Amino acid sequence: MENIHLAAEDEDDLYTGYNDFNPTFDSEDLDNDVGFQQAVRTSHGRRPPVRFAILIKIPGSDAGAARPMTAVRAAGYSSSLARGSTFDPLGQSKGPAPPLEAKNEDTPEEKIKILEKKVNDLIEESCMAQANGDLQLALEKAKEAGRKERALVRQREQTGTADHITLDLTYSVLFNLANQYANNDMNTEALNTYQVIVKNKMFNNAGRLKVNMANIYFKQKNYPKAIKFYRMALDQISNAHTEMRIKIMQNIGVAFIRMGQYSDAITSLEHIMSESPNIKTGFNLILCYYAIGDREKMKKSFQKLICVPLGIDEEDKYIPANDDPHTNLVIEAIKNDQLHQMERERKALAEKYIMTSAKLIAPAIETSFAAGFDWCVDMVKSSQYVELANDLEINKAITYLRQKDFNQAVETLKMFEKKDSRVKSAAATNLSFLYFLEKDFDQADRYADLAMNADRYNPAALINKGNTVFVKQDYEKAAEFYKEALRNDSSCTEALYNLGLTHKRLGRLEEALDSFIKLHAILRNSAQVMYQLASLYEMLEDPHQAIEWLMQLISVTPTDPWVLAKLGELYDSEGDKSQAFQYYYESFRYFPSNISVIEWLGAYYIDTQFCEKAIQYFERATLIQPNQVVWQLMVASCYRRSGNYQKALETYKDIHRKFPDNAECLRFLVRLCTDMGLKEVQEYATKLKKVEKMKEIREQRVKSGRENSARGRREGSASSDSGQSSHGASAKGERLSVTLRSLPGSNEPYEASSQGEIDASYVDPLGPQIERPKTAAKKRTDEDEFEDEELGDDLLPE
Question: What pTM did the predictor assign?
Answer without folding.
Answer: 0.55
